[in-house]
Amino acid sequence: MTRSFPILLTIVLFFCLNNSLNAQQQDMIIRISEIEVHADQLEKYKAILTYEAAASVKLEAGVLAIFPMFQKENPTQVRILEIYADEQAYQSHLKTEHFLYYKTETLKMVKSLKLHDMSIVDQETMQLIFSKLKDKIDSSPQ
User: What single-letter DSSP state applies at residue 117?
Assistant: First the structure.
């Protein structure tokens, strides 16, 4: 009986931690922003977006990812994967100096904006992706 207690305790702890991770992931806000930028403003827009995304990830603990990208065949079509720890982190992000700078400076550069709130299909693979990215960064020469 006493030898099975550590095993039982390990199983209980695993399920508690797993449920805690699941609850945290359910609180996350995941969004894909679809943005069309005026062609004559593209380079300036990308510079401001690069600054905003880097500042958000570096300075805000609740911003898990702001990953901007654009379509190769149509660079005015910008997509941003945004992941926030929770609603509070998102609301806090909206009030930051770097986000407000981005919003005001790019307002006339943007032709259209659509925000798509998303849900996670596979939480385990999502964790693996971020783990692999971290390993890749950690192993690359600095």
Answer: E
- How many residues comprise the chain? 142
| Residue whose C-alpha is closest to residue 84's, from 102, 101, 96 | 96
Domain residue spans of the chain: 29-119
What's the whole-model pTM score?
A: 0.77
Tokens of residue 111, six digits: 């032709």
Architecture of domain 29-119: 2-Layer Sandwich (3.30)
**Each residue of 51-98: pLDDT tens digit?**
999 999 999 999 999 999 999 999 999 999 999 999 999 999 999 999
Separation CA 59–CA 17 (nearest Å): 27
